[in-house]
């Protein structure tokens, strides 16, 4: 059984079909990239999976149980966490306090949560900065804190929403290393990412959305060579000799 099973999910905004009858599966231990042109429905699908918005139709099954209708907090408590495309740190809190708020999901023991926050901060490369206020962090550090806050909930699966956006080459390389370590520690990853070089390097499998519909699902090289995917990114007037 897949860890995450999205079954013919549809989400509409008025007359706009943002996500149309999308099926996807993520197996435990995978890193799966969810890609597609701007406006393809990737973040909307993330919001449906995470419980931020309800679908019009379809089901989302996580760890063997439907999570449609549950609140975002309830879904997080079951082991499905997410990050946000634009980091949303608590501006009056330190790094450790931010991660502690996530750790409190599993109990109100302040000492235990503080200890876990220090462990997580070290895991995401923020060791030694636990007592720094979040507004003083660099963009790359705020991205790492987003991952750290998600890890503080002890997830089985994390939805990573463009955690490499705005990072330079060295910062992207460090983020890729972090994502691999997280997976190696037992956390499954589904990520939305526009940096194709990065997503090709990290993903076991790619799923492509275009205009709210899934148009490809498979190994990265095969997916980016798919004519339908090339058309989605480059338009219908693409010469047949295009090298993907």
Number of helices: 9
The helicity comes to 25-40%
Strand order of the largest sheet: 6-7-8-3-9-10
Mean pLDDT: 93
> pLDDT under 50 segments (min length 5)?
238-244
Radius of gyration over all CA atoms, rounded: 18 Å
Instruction: Find the CATH topology.
Output: Rossmann fold
**Strand count:** 10
Write the layout of secondary structure elements.
Blueprint: E1 4-13, E2 16-26, E3 31-35, H1 42-50, E4 57-62, E5 65-66, H2 72-77, E6 80-82, H3 95-103, H4 110-123, H5 139-151, E7 157-161, H6 169-184, E8 188-192, H7 196-202, E9 205-210, E10 213-218, H8 220-224, H9 227-234
Parallel strand pairs: 3-8, 3-9, 6-7, 7-8
Antiparallel strand pairs: 1-2, 1-4, 4-5, 9-10
Word description of this protein:
- The chain has 244 residues and is α/β, with parallel strands linked by helices.
- Helices cover 36% and strands 24% of the residues.
- Strand 1 and strand 2 (16-26) form a beta hairpin.
- It has helices at residues 42-50, 72-77, 95-103, 110-123, 139-151, 169-184, 196-202, 220-224, 227-234; strands spanning 4-13, 16-26, 31-35, 57-62, 65-66, 80-82, 157-161, 188-192, 205-210, 213-218.
- It has one domain (4-88, 134-234): Rossmann fold (3-Layer(aba) Sandwich).
- It contains 9 helices and 10 strands.
């Amino acid at each position: 059984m897949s860890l995450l099973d999205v079954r013919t999910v549809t989400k509409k905004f008025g007359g706009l079909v943002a996500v149309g009858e999308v099926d996807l599966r993520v197996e435990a231990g995978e890193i799966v990239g969810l890609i597609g042109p701007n406006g393809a429905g990737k973040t909307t699908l993330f919001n449906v999976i995470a419980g931020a918005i309800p679908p019009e139709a379809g089901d989302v099954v996580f760890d063997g149980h439907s999570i449609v209708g549950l609140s975002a907090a309830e879904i997080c408590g079951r082991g499905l966490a997410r990050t946000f495309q634009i980091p949303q740190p608590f501006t009056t809190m330190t790094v450790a306090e931010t991660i502690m708020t996530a750790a409190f999901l599993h109990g109100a023991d302040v000492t235990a949560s503080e200890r876990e926050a220090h462990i997580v901060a070290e895991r995401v490369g923020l060791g030694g900065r636990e007592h720094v206020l979040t507004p003083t962090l660099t963009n790359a550090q705020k991205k790492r804190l987003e991952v750290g806050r998600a890890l503080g909930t002890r997830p089985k699966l994390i939805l990573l929403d463009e955690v490499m956006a705005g990072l330079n080459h060295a910062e992207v390389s460090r983020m890729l290393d972090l994502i691999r370590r997280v997976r190696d520690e037992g956390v499954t990853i589904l990520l939305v990412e526009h940096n194709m070089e990065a997503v090709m390097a990290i993903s076991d499998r790619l799923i492509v959305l275009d205009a709210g519909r899934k148009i490809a699902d498979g190994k990265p090289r095969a997916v980016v060579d798919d004519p339908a995917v090339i058309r989605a990114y480059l338009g219908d007037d693409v010469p047949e000799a295009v090298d993907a």
